[in-house]
Design a protein that fits this description.
The chain is mainly alpha-helical. It is 60% helix and 6% strand. The two termini are 14 Å apart. Keywords: Coiled coil, Membrane, Signal, Transmembrane, Transmembrane helix.
């Protein structure tokens, strides 16, 4: 009985002291191994260190022993295993320390490597920027060259269009100007039905000087007066040379027939006589005298008398009233009573003489004979007033002083003549001139309207042409402006693209540098952690030795309770720096047994996989003390 009590005390003491550290889990090291750093240029610097720490963790792990009841010899076997495990662990830790120390890269070398890599990244970025700059410069040069070509092509195309439009404008405007000139010429060849008036006479000059001025000129029949107008004269006995009206063939406005110096036709003679008689009748009517008797008898006799005058070579000389000269009238049952002579003075300066020019000469001669005849004792006026019959003819003879002499023959009917006087000839001069005036007015109005229309058309054409030309210029300017905008935007796009490339390069460089710095910092931290682990392993060797001494208790047989204790925790255990956190035992002898021990004995430790029985230690110490006391008592009883 006493031996049994001693055995129980010894077993309890031994069980309390033999807490085996047979299953060490270096969780911190495992975590460092599991969380591998991303691949980077600095990763090789700490590969050996990480490997050494991992090896230490693996080597430090020992198999947990099952709890058994052994005899003193079994206890001795456990002591030997503990000693062997302690020795192996110490040797393994020493090897780990050596490997870690040899493979660890110093922090300065890591920083140097990082700086080298950053320099390489910076150099690569500078090269990329240089390439981008070269490409940008080339692209800008090419784009500008293309833009210059595009602008030149656009300008050239519009220049051709503008030039074509200018040529078209010039052609159409020239045609319009020609139409205006034609219309103006037509207007100049016509005149309003403004009847001419006689020019005034002064003491020292003849009216002929003023007859060529406006209001006194006659260029169309429509301007011929059909009624005599008394001219303003200072002295009626001053010769005027019949210059009260001026004949001017302006722009060939005179459309009457041209007469010949060899003689006028009978029709021409009758037309001129019609106008002359009309003028004389206007004066006779004005003074209350009957109009002249004018028939073919007197007119044919007068025309015959003009031929007789040429035969007798009478050059502005009156008849002698001989039988030969009177014969022409006698043949017509008429008696020749008197003669007025005039000349076509106004036609002397004209290269061609027309019916209108001779009518103007008759107008000047009759006006002179009626109103300014004091120099001739008013003999011409007397003949015009007393005449019963009067015929008018033109003596044409180019060899005479006056190629066209105006003959006014005054006659009366012979009552005893067997020749019967024919009916009076109806005068048509007034109606003819009025018709000419109406036609002239129409022509003049039409000509004015034609000129106005041509001018308006010309102005409108110029406006249209200018608008077409301006439209092309506007289109050209708009096209060039639009093209310049697109070209500028193209250059801006190139600049933006280049700036984006630069920004991307700088962003990438910054990211690379940041990654290098992070990798370096991580490696330096890993190196520091590795050095800390080396220090812990060294400290753990002492704890392993102490553990070996616990297992050297000889002759104690008890049920062993083994818990997994990390090697780097042994120092903390030996110094009683234990945590209060509860942990679970290793499932060495089966889950049910582990759960049973976990319920029986509270656990503590820093990690869930690394457990230690604080209560077991206390129970072991109490058991040891109780066993020692019982042993001491037993010896005392002996």
């Amino acid at each position: 009985m006493r031996k049994a009590k001693i055995a129980m005390a010894t077993t309890a003491a031994f069980a309390g002291l033999t807490i085996g550290v047979m299953n060490v889990h270096a969780d911190t090291v495992n975590e460092a191994t599991a969380k591998q750093a991303p691949t980077n240029p600095l990763s090789n610097a700490t590969t050996a260190t990480t490997s050494a720490v991992t090896s230490t963790t693996t080597t430090a792990s020992v198999t947990t022993q099952q709890t058994t009841e052994k005899s003193a010899s079994t206890s001795s076997s456990l002591q030997e295993k503990a000693a062997t495990s302690s020795t192996q662990t110490t040797a393994s830790n020493a090897s780990d320390i050596s490997a870690t120390t040899q493979s660890a890269t110093s922090a300065s070398s890591i920083k140097t490597a990082a700086a080298t890599q950053k320099e390489a990244a910076t150099s690569a970025a500078a090269s990329a920027e240089s390439k981008a700059a070269t490409e940008y410069t080339t692209a800008v040069a090419q784009t500008k060259a293309q833009q210059v070509a595009e602008s030149a092509a656009t300008s050239s195309a519009y220049a051709q269009k503008i030039n074509n439009q200018k040529q078209t404008n010039a052609a159409t405007e020239s045609a319009a100007a020609q139409k205006v000139a034609t219309a103006q010429a037509a207007l100049s060849s016509t005149a309003e039905s403004a009847t001419a008036t006689p020019a005034q006479q002064t003491l020292d000059s003849d009216p002929i000087i003023y007859a060529k001025t406006a209001g006194h000129t006659i260029s169309t029949e429509a301007q011929l007066p059909v009624v005599l107008t008394k001219p303003v004269v200072k002295k009626s006995d001053v010769a005027s040379d019949y210059g009260y009206y001026g004949y001017i063939n302006t722009n060939n406005s005179d459309k009457t027939a041209v007469v010949s110096t060899t003689g006028l036709t009978k029709q021409q003679q009758y037309e001129l006589a019609d106008y002359a008689v009309t003028l004389v009748n206007s004066y006779r009517t004005a003074i209350g005298t009957e109009t002249l008797k004018y028939n073919s008898n007197v007119e044919d006799a007068t025309i015959a008398e003009a031929a007789i005058r040429n035969q007798e070579q009478l050059d502005f000389t009156h008849l002698s009233f001989n039988e030969t000269e009177k014969a022409a009238f006698s043949a017509q049952g008429l008696q020749l009573d008197g003669e007025n002579l005039g000349v076509a003075q106004a036609t002397a300066a004209e290269s061609k003489t027309t019916i209108l020019a001779l009518k103007v000469a008759l107008l000047n001669a009759i006006t002179e004979m009626v109103y300014v005849d004091d120099a001739h004792a008013n003999g011409h006026l007397h003949n015009f007033v007393v005449a019963d019959y009067m015929g008018v003819a033109v003596q044409a003879n180019a060899s005479m002083t006056y190629p066209y002499q105006l003959i006014f023959e005054v006659a009366s009917a012979v009552p005893s003549s067997h020749v019967t006087q024919k009916a009076a000839i109806a005068l048509t001069a007034t109606a003819r001139i009025k018709q000419a005036q109406a036609s002239a007015n129409q022509q003049y109005t039409a000509a004015k309207e034609a000129v106005a229309s041509a001018l308006i058309a010309q102005a409108n054409l110029k406006l249209t042409n200018a608008a077409l030309l301006n439209a092309l210029v506007t289109q050209r300017d708009a096209a060039l402006t639009r093209l310049a905008t697109l070209q500028q935007q193209a250059l801006i796009n190139l600049a933006d693209k280049y700036q984006t490339q630069k920004n991307n390069i700088q962003t990438k460089l910054a990211a690379q540098k940041k990654a290098i710095e992070i990798a370096a910092a991580s490696q330096i931290a890993q190196l520091a952690n590795a050095n800390k682990r080396v220090s812990r392993i060294k400290a753990a060797n002492i704890s392993v030795n102490e553990r070996g001494r616990v297992h050297k208790l000889d002759g104690i047989t008890a049920k062993q309770i083994i818990y997994a204790v990390p090697t780097h925790k042994l120092t903390e255990i030996s110094s009683y720096a234990l945590s209060n956190e509860t942990r679970q035992p290793v499932e060495q002898t089966g889950r049910k047994e582990a759960e049973m021990w976990a319920k029986a004995l509270p656990q503590t430790g820093d990690d869930a996989g690394n457990t230690l029985s604080l209560t077991g230690i206390l129970l072991a110490v109490l058991s040891l003390l109780s066993g020692t006391w019982l042993l001491h008592k037993q010896r005392t009883f002996k």
